[in-house]
Amino acid sequence: MRAVVLVGGFGTRLRPLTLSIPKPMLPVGHRPIVENVIRMLAAAGIDEVVLGLGFKPEPFVEAFPDGVCAGIPLHYAVEPEPLDTAGAIRFAAEHAGINETFVVVNGDVLTDLNISALIAFHKDRGAQATMHLTPVDDPSAYGVAVIDDLGQVQRFVEKPAPGTAPSNLINAGTYVVEPSVLRRIATGRKVSIEREIFPLIVDDGGLYALATNDYWIDAGRPEPYLQANLDMIDAVRRSAFAPAIEAGAKVDPSAIVRHSLISAGALVEAGADIKDSVILAGAIIRQGAVVHGSIVMGEVGNGASITDTIVGATGSVVPGVTLVHALVPDPTLL
Predict the structure, then answer these.
(1) Domain 2-231 in CATH: superfamily?
(2) Phi, psi of 185 (to 5 degrees)
(3) Backbone angles phi, psi at 43, to 5 degrees
(4) Inter-residue contact 25 to 221 (CB < 8 Å)
(5) Alpha-helical runs (H) found in 72-144
(6) What is the C-alpha to C-alpha distance for residues 280 and 223, in angstroms, rounded to an integer?
(7) CA distance 329 to 40
(8) pTM score over 0.70
(9) What is the architecture of the domain spanning 250-333?
(10) CA pair distance 325, 236, nearest whole angstrom
């Protein structure tokens, strides 16, 4: 079975990190998000992954020059223009010649879902499409489903107003889809699977959903992206783990590192204090700098202090300054 992984988004919510790298190529646990996704698919027996590409396809090709990731062959489907979720799925599937049941995954979703169980559920129900659902406290930012005892979706509401959601079970971004669904997706324009296609399938009685309590996180925003990394060292994942300090990171013995990830290629100088943070490849934390609750790709100067701050690859925090809830550089000024 093949899978389509949607990785064509712009990653605007993760700027300035995504000014230099596409969101799915940002590391979680020292591996690109997309590699984490593909490893999950490989565990379910997926034998080819189609990457639905749009924004900055070059980094994906450069990262996997032999066209293989986690032992799985890759097929690149580069959209000529943004086509939204359903349009991207149809374009990628047809580009790769998919003509049988396939899996679709949003490229910024990290989960311990048993994909094989989702596929089996889909086949058992004879569904046109099946989605994974997960419970959340506030479903207003997501697509919300109401299901019956057999898992048939009775209603699907995309991003309901706060307090109006019909349930707390949200679309978790992993689907099993029949090729017949592709014919329902118009070509030549943007088409949303959540707003246009799922409601059509609900009307036909062909949309099913499997709700689970498996680990799940949407790493497309700064707070959950940071959390997704910290989860990799906190042993909360069933299927993934990463060392706090990756081999190849240079950390001075006098630096204090607490509950943080530091990737190969990063430099942490003497007396630095790092807590609840992610220090990515190429980052430089200068002598005596304090980094708490932050994500750093660039440089934090001598004696500077940053809290809940994101420093992009071109960002530089000047020595001695104190920043809280800052973006460096500020994307709104670029």
Answers:
(1) Spore Coat Polysaccharide Biosynthesis Protein SpsA; Chain A (3.90.550.10)
(2) -95, 115
(3) -65, -25
(4) no
(5) 84-95, 115-125
(6) 16
(7) 34
(8) yes
(9) 3 Solenoid (2.160)
(10) 27
Q: Express each pLDDT in 162-201 by its tens digit.
A: 888 888 899 999 999 999 999 999 998 999 998 899 999 9
Is 333 a residue whose pLDDT tops 80?
no
Residue 127 and residue 7: Cα distance in Å, rounded?
25
Q: Are 70 and 63 in contact (CB under 8 A)?
A: no
Please check whether residue 95 is in contact with residue 77, taking contact to mean a CB–CB distance below 8 angstroms: yes
CA terminus-to-terminus distance, the chain: 43
Residue 102: CA count within 13 A, CB half-sphere = 24
Q: Which residues make beta-bridge pairs with 169? A: 135
Report the distance separating Cα 186 and Cα 182, nearest Å: 9
How far apart are the C-alpha atoms of 54 and 56, rounded to whole Å? 6
Type of residue numbered 31: R
Judged on CB neighbours under 10 Å (0-12, 13-18, 19+), 137 is exposed
Chain-centre distance of CA 270, in angstroms? 34
CATH 2.160.10.10 domain locations along the chain: 250-333
